[in-house]
Amino acid sequence: MYYHAVLPPYDYSRSQARIRRDSLDHWIIGICRRGTQRQRSGNAEVTFDLGVPYVLTMARPFEAQREGAEIEWASLFVARDSMPELEPLFSATLYRPLAGPAGRLLATYLETMQEVSQNLRASEIAHLETATRALLAAALEGSRDALEAACPQIEHLQLSRIKRLIRANLGSATLGPGRLCAMGGVSRSALYRLFEPLGGVACYIQRERLRCAYRLLTDPHDRRGIAQMAEAVGFFEPSSFSRSFRAHFGATPRELRMAALEGRGTLPHAAFNAPGQGPSSVSEILHRL
């Protein structure tokens, strides 16, 4: 997903609690085109060069400051599961500029895409996606020196692989730590260590099941009953599913389903937003990627 905005200066952050709550772990290609943008995550600190793409992530806490009369900011959000073959390059170039020729071409390409996207025909979208993937791969590959100099990212690769296994097996009643260890080739202690920042393995599985149920319930073309949808994502007790769903989203499965079938769209829900904030359309879109 591509996002572009002109913003006033402000400070913002993404906390570990927010990461546990929304489970978003997308890669971000961020470009500051006007103003000053700084971001700190752990020991890494970045001051963005104008017009240069940087590799960022939603999977780690960060603090950021935006200064200037106006800030023009563009982001390309990439779901981790969509490009697993590029995971090592994303990890190695994290918080680094894609300053080579392909990186500069990527920045120009994204700016052009912003200008023409409203006029694209449906038949052109698939070609645009292919071009974006190829250019992104070239920009990351152009920073291979960062890959060779970076420390191994084994744990990040393991976590991404196990997340994919979870999403592929949500409907299984036996999905749990023991089975994940067997499928993912990791020890139980390693599995717990990987998911500890996300609130634990069981909590992560529960959130993924609820998120998948949300997507099914808001699809007016899916004619299955609520109980069938719940079972498809691993909830086999209707009352337990309803309680968990309402606690997470602030609405019952039936209320959400009725809204979708009546064409009223989705219901606002607090689970995708920080306390005190209203619904975030960007967050909702990212959850659907």
UniProtKB/TrEMBL annotation:
Keywords per UniProt: DNA-binding, Transcription, Transcription regulation
PROSITE patterns in UniProt: HTH_ARAC_FAMILY_2 (PS01124)
Superkingdom assignment: Bacteria
HTH araC/xylS-type domain location: 160-259
Residue ranges of coiled coil: none
Protein name stated in the entry: HTH araC/xylS-type domain-containing protein
Organism of this sequence: Roseomonas fluvialis
Lineage of origin: Bacteria, Pseudomonadati, Pseudomonadota, Alphaproteobacteria, Acetobacterales
